[in-house]
Amino acid sequence: MPAFVSPLASPSSWTYSTELVTLPPGVRYPGYVALGLRARSTADGGVVFPAQGAARSVDAGALHWIELQPSPFAIRSVLGGLRMGLPTFYFAFAAPRPALAADTAAAQGAPIATATSVLVAVVGQDRVALDPAAWCDQILGALRAGGTPTEWEPFATAVAAALAPPGEQPVMLYDHTGAPLSGGSFEITGSTGRIEVVLTAADGGNLVSAARRAGTALPWALGSGLRVRDLGFEADQHVELAAFEDGAHATGALDIAPARRHFTAGNLRLWFAPQRGPGLAHYTRGNRIRFVQNGKPFFDEWFRLLATSDVTGGGVHLAGWAMFNEYLTERREGEPIDLPVNLEQLLQRIHAAGGTGRFLPTRFFQLNRDSALVPVALLLVFGLAMLPLVIDPRSFNDAGIALYLAALVGALVGGAYIAESQAHDLEPNRLIQDRLNAIDPLACALSAYPSIVADNPRGMAALTRTPVESRWILDAALSEISHLSVYHQKFSILRTTEGGAPRHCAYYGGIDFVSQQLDDVHHLAAAPFHDIQARVDGPAVRDLALSFEQRWLRDGNRPSAGAPPTLAFPTPSTDALAREALPDTPPCAMQVARSYFAAAAPARALEFAPGGDRTLLDTILAALGQAREYIYLQDQYLTPPEEFQRALFAALPRIKQLIVTVPGQTDVPFGDLARGSFIEALRLRARDAGTPLRIGYPRRHPTLPGTRRAAAAGRLFLARALGAGAPSTLRETIILKPAERIPPPPFWIVCDGELMRVDTVTRTTGTAEDERTFFVWRGVESRLMSSPADATAPAPRPRDHAEGAPVAVVDLTPIYVHCKLILVDDVFLSHGSANCNRRGYYSDGELNVFTVPQALRSSPANPLADLRRRIWLEMYNLPDAMAPLADDPVAALPYFDRAPLLGNRYTTIDWRPEKLTWSAGIGDSALALALQLLLFSIETGFDDQINRIAGDPSTSLEVP
Questions:
Q1: Which pLDDT value is given to residue 342?
Q2: Taking Cα atoms as reference points, which of 801, 815, 776 lies closest to residue 904?
Q3: Which of 241, 345, 917, 951 has the smallest number of Cβ neighbours within 10 A?
Q4: Handedness of CA 378, 601, 592, 269 (dihedral sign)
Q5: Cβ distance 142 to 4 under 8 Å?
Q6: What confidence score (pLDDT) does residue 396 get?
Q7: What digits encode the pLDDT tens for the residues 217-275?
């Protein structure tokens, strides 16, 4: 049986024309533009299903639509030959037709209807509005290569004769999403002359149509170049052209041929904002990028690559937020015994070979030695936390007592220590500095960020609004620690002998050199962690290297008094990088962008950013303005400033989907309140715009936790029977035993197949010595598989459980999302160290790299599409072998909704336990609950002031 047959009976008896059409809601590609084939016949002609698959019907206005999704198994012999991927067929009729339920089985050749007029459209997984002659020819070519073309060939021949005769084939121009361009000035040049054409919406992106309308025939004899002239820009050098047929691409001009006549035109100046960083390029072309998912694979690759830098002149420049001298990789069987596994060993090896390294970890503490008030302020803060223990010690469990005793000791000892010690002794990065400088005294310098509270106008305004009775505590703390912004960049430049010759590459992203991030896509670490680091080769390495050089010349160690700091190796020039071998991967245009504060006083300004730098945010805003298909956003905090919010809200009516991934719990003070407020506003805007929105966090599927204390830890029994009960918003109690196997709350349990969340300990009066009584959340109230606000979602079903029923503690640990990433339409990537908040976009020292593939979305090897597939598979908890499921971002959306109990990691943000602020030990006495309310009032009452001062500072670069 052939994979495809003609959808029209007697195809030569129909007449054909093209027609732009927007696909209706309810189909696979709602809102997408297709270039439809209008077929007319003088008598009723038969319309049939061209392939075996699943069909459905949708009524939209005056048209009745039939959608056919061919079965990939039925066409597997030819599917690999289809550049468009799996095609979806649409048939539109003016007259009503019998309704088809979703997923109705359709047999190949089965009749759909008889009609004198039908609109036929095809959309492939690349979502490009190919002209009908092109998609007919693409299917015909695949059938000739691996199938039986006889049943399709008459249809393809008839369409080509009518719509694309030799010398008159359409030449199509598209925007970056594959939708036909509706305007612009273009010229076509060749060996015998040139013509100019102006596209209008009526041309449907077809230059041949525009030329005819102007009274000029498109001379295919010219056909040696296509040049785009956008009157809004002064030069063609910013315009990228790419052909969908073969992925060929060029700047400004590209050859036309009958087999290459569908082009994407993209202006890079619309994506990359002007560069504010002195010395940095607006953007560079010819770069290669490759992504490493999660910390463990990154460290494995990074250390092994740097093992090739143990030659004269080899070395590394590394800037990071945190660097600890921990083992970050492991030697494998057969590897050299001297393979470095931490930073100290790495520098020893490089230094012994005549090279060296330069390291810039952040200096966190910049203390004012003349203040004695900070210990008093700390004692007051921690003493407030101790009040419940002092007033009602019976209401605490062991963990709570230990917590507050530790807080008291920490306040006493820490306050005295801060007051008397040197700031150097408190630095988390001090150890790595000492270890590296013992090898090379110039190697490591703690990098102090000069911004202070006075540079934060929002914080100063918030401080003046703080109540007088509380302001002196903040004044005391700020007089001691006035530097609340930091360098947060995480990037490195490597000079190695990879491939046998000296060369440079760079890595950037959000991964810190700490063992906390040792995890991979399986997320079996005790504290699962998700992040991404990228490797860059090509001209953009120069801008990354210059960014390090600028910081090192300011903060690096000096070889002698008055002498400038020296680098491990010179910053490579763009010309030198161009001569180095590059990986055989698609080239990309890249912009290196930073965030640097604007100093209120010139003396604190950075020499390499005297007025501050907000290129990073400017480019993100430009990219959000270009979004047309989807936005995928990952962020650690998601508390964006107003500028970002306005741009994202404005994009919602234009795009077809927005997917957001965040941690289940933000760890920034008061971050949940700010994030929750933004999420609610985003939901309202998306609902009003009719844009599908998914906001969730990744969570490890239920597994048995490790038994670190005893072999039977977490294996429990019910000490009392537990009934199914009635639906209620009140917590129930559960009694578990034996006590020595019970972990500290909160924890999750499975009892007879029912999943529950165990919360704080209640009073133990009336229970045996080896029993413990807890609050337990069940059903919808557990917020594990659904929430009260999402009652339609499946939830664990409460049921009766007998005394003695076995109970297993299970691990439903959220995977911490540390990655800061924005993907737009598979053609733009923002990735780096900047979190989506004021601190990341205005105040801290951040670095992101922005990437646009030069072939835009035309190349099957598009690195951004590959990154999206890999990230989404990680969220879905599916193996790499199932990557085709995520080829199409539209068809991949339902996998975000797959049930968690089927293995899905992505969990809607509402399906999570409530924040346990102040509840791990408060107890349930009336006095304790009153104190909990008081503490919550303090938290929420001052959240805005404290957040603006310390948690999320800004500078004058922020635009209100």
A1: 97
A2: 815
A3: 917
A4: positive
A5: no
A6: 42
A7: 765 545 556 676 665 555 668 889 999 988 889 988 888 888 888 999 899 999 999 99
DSSP, collapsed to helix, strand or coil, labels residue 812 as: coil
Pick left, alpha or beta for residue 702 (phi over 0 → left; psi -120 to 50 → alpha; otherwise beta): beta
Residue 512 Cα distances to 166, 396, 470, 670, 737, angstroms = 59, 37, 36, 24, 41
- Token output for 699: 């969570």
607: exposed, middle or buried (C-beta count within 10 Å: 0-12, 13-18, 19+)? exposed
Confidence of residue 561 (pLDDT cuts 50, 70, 90): confident
Q: Which of 867, 929, 186 is nearest to 585 (CA)?
A: 867
Q: Supply 601's token pair.
A: 């006083």
Return the closest-CA partner of residue 485 out of 943, 837, 939. 837
Over residues 883-933, the pLDDT tens digits come to 888 999 988 999 999 888 788 999 999 888 765 433 333 444 454 455 455
955 DSSP 8-state letter: -
Nearest-angstrom CA–CA distance, 530 and 663: 10
User: What SS3 class is residue 82?
Assistant: coil
State the Cα–Cα distance between residues 136 and 684, nearest whole angstrom: 43
Q: Which two tokens stand for residue 360?
A: 């810039």
Q: What's at 811, amino acid-wise?
A: D
**Main-chain dihedrals φ then ψ at residue 671, nearest 5 degrees:** -65, -35
Name the token pair of 377. 């302020």
- CA of residue 160 relative to chain centroid, distance: 42
**What's the CA gap between 294 and 517, in Å, rounded?**
7
pLDDT at 392 exceeding the cut of 80: no
**488: closest CA among 869, 250, 837, 851?**
837
Q: Tell me which of 937 and 773 has the higher pLDDT.
A: 773
Q: Are 400 and 924 in contact (CB under 8 A)?
A: no
Residues 242, 248 contacting (CB under 8 angstroms): yes
Give one DSSP letter per residue of 641-696, joined into a string: -HHHHHHHHHHTTT-SEEEEE--SS--STTHHHHHHHHHHHHHHHHHHHT--EEEE
At CA 444, angle to CA 442 and CA 445, rounded to 5?
Answer: 100
DSSP structure string for 96-139 = ------TTEEE-TT-EEEEEEEEEEEEE-TT-----HHHHHHHH
Q: Model pTM?
A: 0.91
Q: Locate 430 and state its tokens.
A: 């001090």
Cβ(863)–Cβ(585) below 8 Å: yes
Strands (E), 232-294: 239-243, 249-251, 253-254, 262-267, 284-293
- The mean pLDDT of 301-324, rounded to a whole number, is 87
Question: Using CA atoms, how far apart are residues 109 and 514, in angstroms rounded to an integer?
Answer: 61
Q: Judge whether 506 and 539 are in contact, CB under 8 Å.
A: no
Give the CA count within 13 Å in the CB-facing half-sphere of 342: 12
Q: Give the neighbor-by-neighbor strand order of the sheet with 111-123.
A: 15-22, 33-48, 111-123, 88-93, 63-70, 53-60, 104-106
User: Distance between alpha carbon 117 and the CA centroid of its chain, in Å?
Assistant: 45
The tally of CA atoms less than 13 A away on the side-chain side of residue 220 is 14
What is the mean pLDDT of the segment spanning 719-746? Answer: 80
Which of 936, 896, 911 has the alpha carbon at shortest distance from 814? 911
How many whole angstroms from its chain centre is CA 51? 37
For tokens 């290196």, what's the residue? Answer: 592
